[in-house]
């Protein structure tokens, strides 16, 4: 039995997921495409799935009988309406981040899914599927005692001019926000931001680097350095300190060389290479659950919690050094 | 278009490849199965591919119109006849190692494929598809100057009683024999074996460890330690020394822990875990080529060369310290 | 010419420095000893320096013509008076930490030394002489651009019952406080303390772990984890993030082993082993300067700044999350 | 009590040992110097030990009442006569390598020392005092089971034109020859040399790299790569494979940097930096034993065994691939 997928949004990530479904993964095919730019949808159709149908709107695509499940890869501001439509249609839906552009929007999705009564939505937090984080979680859960602290870093060699201070939260830290909730099986209660002097390579509208301190309900303190003009590479670091010991996220596989008086490994410079393998795994998880009419992995609730936490972190950026409390309603039983 | 695969031999590896084709990889399905034990074939059919047909013999399977390409996963002694039959039928054929149980048998396959005029056979040397070796080859080809030496090790924690000295070549070193030819783009000219004292954990019919020294046509010297009672883990090491520098095969991804006064990573103990990801990649390569009616990756010639080299290494084992020359006919143009 | 040293305080560290002077280092001898417990002084005399004279008081020792330079290794509360006496006598003086038990006391020493007009005092901050920190400083000064952040940790496997929360500053962080000023060539302007939940292994009067955030005059932010019940080992970590790259303090030399399915190095568990080699180097530096009638290395000013910073950190502990400003008078020219 | 040392030969190493004795080590002074070039001796006297006496000949120096113990740092061809004279005078003698330029010469020293009846000679094999090798030996002796194989490398970035093939044994491998006997507590029984193609950077009179295979009396096989035009650095590698696991010589302390898309450590390029700390330790050992009228550490017998083994390795170079047996008389009881 082959799962029939409709892809809304055929930009970079939509095209890449379409390729993945058509050429890499078993038991699935793209039967429908739509994009605000119809030519884009038709180009993907021509290149990757000639048998798919191109729809004028995402809503039409969701409604079509030829679609079992939906991938929302369109512009962020449109995510909420498509996800709500998919829930209304009772169709499993994979939504790229953000689930919605506001916490309120994400909450409306949670409410709709709860009203539906079973999970239909997976959010595209791919790090949970990365082989390194999966191995780290296994060790954190079983070998180092209860976590007490996390030391993390999210570094990018450079960012464009339009990347302003809050984007360090919404576009960058958002991955840590989700993955640490999952890694620690915990929720956040407060955020604080500390700014060192801004680095010389930054620009007027960006304070970079910054250190975000999150505290969890269980009392774990997480310090994450965000440094998006670090120059040397794209580098994701995470070390969990537990009652009995410490575990660290592994470095990506690299060849150790002895060359030019230097013992050396390459460090990646492009974020797209860092978690590239995890996209296959997250979609495999989606396909498996969607074939059974449901969803697994990062949920609407996770998307909502990420939105609430991001908002608190941005508030903390605006009031450097202040402790910003993070509050949210009780977790619906659907997400336990 | 979906490639229809017939699987001959439904033991451990045949079953696993069937699962891979049915559940993991795109554009392919298992349409036919056979096994000397028909119950085994029917069990795999029931579990993994209910629409597939079970054939009484591999020859019938190969001949069937429902089969575009063949996977030979049966007992080693039967490989030659099935591969020859697939070539005779003009169907792409993936053959698990060994290609044949003798160099002469492998040579007959080479001759048949050359007579056919285009490649149809891929041999299951999966290491060429391992992410570590692929990265190593890229560095060896471009960054460390021409290779001069290789230091390698193939270690296994323990082996059963029936594992005798020549199996260290046929079952163990065989992987290094193929992967170093590919890594160095070179051929072997001689072999020598040195035996240290046999370790206490070995048994009467096995001299373990041993060091096999291979020299190549370009003058590179490769020392490979084979130690199959090393106790501590399954460990594959490879370091290439070039004119300008040195490159090493990476360790498998592992979590670094600080625990119990020890900075530590796990080492694998089961060989099946070491190259598990490369099976998906080698079959993907086979599927892509077979869909186009041909074969890529490790060829019949590579299988033949591995057989010739293995024979020389066993001779070298029998005459410790002696230099055994390795000779073979000119490489047919088909394999350039 | 041999430098004649008087050692005040013959407990563990005083005895060890006496051994070092008598048996390891060139150009120096212990000619005088004193201790509040005369039997202790006589025992060290008998064991290590039979030709030395035992004095009833530190003041007598300092005044003696047989003493060119003084080592103050007595109980911390007595340091100030002995150092002041040595300055009054115009004799070079090496003082184990703390220089004084209060910032005011340390300031009195600074004032006395400034009044004297040249340096006479070296404080026993031995980390500045550790081969790892020295190598790190060289890289920080020349290769990674201006520092922006430091991520550090000071971990101890366990502490006794009498170790209470402020001791995490006075006895533990004190080393980081001094060594980071030197490493960064910078001064502190504020401190903040964050407490994760206290670990299960701690006791009622100790909040452990804690994270101390120091900000410097140049805008560098330093996060140091202090965790003195970490169980797994004595572990000092320090990573400096600069404009161009990152440099890390090396791990102590250790043998990498492959054993029991584990790739592993030993981690030290006893703090006394971690910087043991640096004691020889710091005393060599003292001897060289003292032979010329002066002092080098960590100064009275450094001891005073450490005291001021420690006081601020303890205040920050008492008011978790609050930003505590650190202020101090202008640096006297003597210390530039 | 101060040990009075006479230094014969005031070239680079003689001057450096004099500096070490005068300025670094306790309980010792240089009281006498001699050199075939008297101006050299006088220059060292002026710079480092104005109270020392300059002797016209090494023999006069040895005979002087002002000399308790002798350091032989002169040209290799003169070592034998000075060591024999020191033994005749009953004075402890530290001799830089080689102990003698022939195995016969070394044997004459052994015989003289045995006739004397107690140890007087220490040979300057400093690696036995290197912190890395000492730590490795401790692990090899206690944690990895009985050794079975050693994989080693001795690499130099480049060598001058006058460095010809046999010097790879006499000047380079000589260190491994001694240190592995000590590390394994074993003796050699055979040598074999394998030459890969010579690297492009070598010259007409040097076959480089080469692999020397030594087998020991206990059956351990040691493969050492010698590569003196490796370009990338001065690099000493040693991995011991035992019955239970593997232990490796640590890399020298280095700062790990993240810089320019590269995770990197410096590799040394100058051999003089690699074991620099071990010279202090070996002389400390000599001073301690000599003060007691005897010698410790590497013995005349070790120097003789190194000479015998070197000769066998050079013979093995001249007959590539041949197994050259290594024989020697029974070890005198003095050296047990």
From TrEMBL, chains A, B, C, D:
<dbReference type="GO" id="GO:0000166">
    <property type="term" value="F:nucleotide binding"/>
</dbReference>
<dbReference type="GO" id="GO:0019310">
    <property type="term" value="P:inositol catabolic process"/>
</dbReference>
<feature type="domain" description="Gfo/Idh/MocA-like oxidoreductase C-terminal">
    <location>
        <begin position="141"/>
        <end position="320"/>
    </location>
</feature>
<dbReference type="InterPro" id="IPR036291">
    <property type="entry name" value="NAD(P)-bd_dom_sf"/>
</dbReference>
<dbReference type="GO" id="GO:0050112">
    <property type="term" value="F:inositol 2-dehydrogenase (NAD+) activity"/>
</dbReference>
<protein>
    <recommendedName>
        <fullName>Inositol 2-dehydrogenase</fullName>
        <ecNumber>1.1.1.18</ecNumber>
    </recommendedName>
</protein>
<keyword id="KW-0560">Oxidoreductase</keyword>
<comment type="function">
    <text>Involved in the oxidation of myo-inositol (MI) to 2-keto-myo-inositol (2KMI or 2-inosose).</text>
</comment>
<feature type="domain" description="Gfo/Idh/MocA-like oxidoreductase N-terminal">
    <location>
        <begin position="3"/>
        <end position="125"/>
    </location>
</feature>
<comment type="subunit">
    <text>Homotetramer.</text>
</comment>
<comment type="similarity">
    <text>Belongs to the Gfo/Idh/MocA family.</text>
</comment>
<keyword id="KW-0520">NAD</keyword>
<dbReference type="InterPro" id="IPR050424">
    <property type="entry name" value="Gfo-Idh-MocA_inositol_DH"/>
</dbReference>
<dbReference type="Pfam" id="PF02894">
    <property type="entry name" value="GFO_IDH_MocA_C"/>
</dbReference>
<dbReference type="InterPro" id="IPR023794">
    <property type="entry name" value="MI/DCI_dehydrogenase"/>
</dbReference>
<dbReference type="Pfam" id="PF01408">
    <property type="entry name" value="GFO_IDH_MocA"/>
</dbReference>
<dbReference type="InterPro" id="IPR004104">
    <property type="entry name" value="Gfo/Idh/MocA-like_OxRdtase_C"/>
</dbReference>
<dbReference type="InterPro" id="IPR000683">
    <property type="entry name" value="Gfo/Idh/MocA-like_OxRdtase_N"/>
</dbReference>
């Amino acid at each position: 039995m082959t799962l029939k997928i409709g892809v809304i949004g055929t930009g970079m990530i939509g095209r890449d997921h379409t390729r993945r479904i058509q050429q890499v993964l078993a038991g699935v095919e793209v039967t429908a495409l739509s994009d605000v730019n119809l030519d884009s949808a038709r180009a993907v159709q021509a290149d990757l799935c000639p048998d798919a149908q191109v729809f004028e709107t995402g809503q039409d695509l969701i409604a079509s009988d030829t679609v079992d499940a939906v991938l929302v890869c369109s512009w962020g501001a449109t995510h909420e309406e498509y996800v709500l439509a998919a829930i209304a249609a009772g169709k499993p839906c994979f939504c790229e981040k953000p689930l919605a552009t506001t916490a309120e929007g994400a909450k409306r999705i949670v409410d709709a899914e709860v009203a539906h009564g079973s999970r239909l939505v997976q959010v595209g937090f791919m790090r949970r599927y990365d082989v390194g984080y999966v191995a780290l979680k296994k060790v954190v859960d079983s070998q180092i005692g209860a976590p007490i602290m996390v030391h993390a870093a999210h570094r990018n060699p450079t960012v464009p001019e339009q990347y302003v201070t809050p984007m360090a939260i919404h576009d960058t830290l958002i991955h840590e926000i989700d993955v640490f909730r999952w890694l620690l099986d915990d929720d956040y209660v407060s955020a604080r931001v500390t700014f060192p002097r801004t680095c010389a390579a930054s620009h007027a509208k960006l304070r970079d680097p910054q250190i975000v301190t999150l505290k969890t309900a269980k009392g774990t303190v997480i310090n994450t350095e965000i440094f998006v003009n670090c120059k040397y590479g794209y580098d994701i670091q995470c070390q969990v300190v537990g009652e009995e010991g410490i575990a660290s996220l592994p470095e990506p596989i690299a060849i150790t060389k002895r060359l030019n008086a230097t013992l050396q490994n390459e460090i990646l410079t492009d974020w797209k290479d860092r978690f590239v393998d995890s996209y296959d795994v997250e979609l495999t998880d989606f396909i498996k659950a969607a074939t059974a009419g449901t969803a697994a992995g990062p949920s609407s609730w996770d998307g909502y919690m990420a939105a609430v936490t991001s908002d608190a972190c941005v508030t903390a950026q605006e009031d450097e050094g202040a402790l910003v409390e993070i509050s949210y309603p009780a977790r619906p039983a659907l997400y336990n």
